[in-house]
Amino acid sequence: MQLTPFHLAIQVRDIDEAREFYGHKMGLPEGRSAEHWIDFNLFGHQLVTHLNPAIGSHGKVAAVANPVDGHGVPVPHFGVVMNFDDWQVFAERARGFVEEFLIEPYIRFAGKPGEQGTMFFQDPSGNALEFKGFRDIQGALFAT
To answer: Where on the tree of life does the source sit, at the highest rank (predicted)?
Structure first.
């Protein structure tokens, strides 16, 4: 099966804040937009930020954490799988715009099936993002 772009719509507390974070800080190209939503090109995927004023100006979306490889992985979360070299470049770039990582960039499952670079951080509304990097995406993504 050929991989195709996914579409993900998330809630944010402030549209201008979302534009600043995803568009300016992360550098994602902006697509269509209106007063209450913005489309972003998330590495070829369609990420739509929708205003939810019920979150409040200082509020965050709810999340829990589950243990994985000695870390508390936030749930829910979303992100992109990349080849390892691109992940390393993005991880360095992320250090310039992420104020506090939930999980700093590191190698998860080192030396085991599914070895991957990973990092977690939140947008200003509390949406958790994970970016993964594999040396062999097709062979390692679902390795057990």
So the answer is: Bacteria
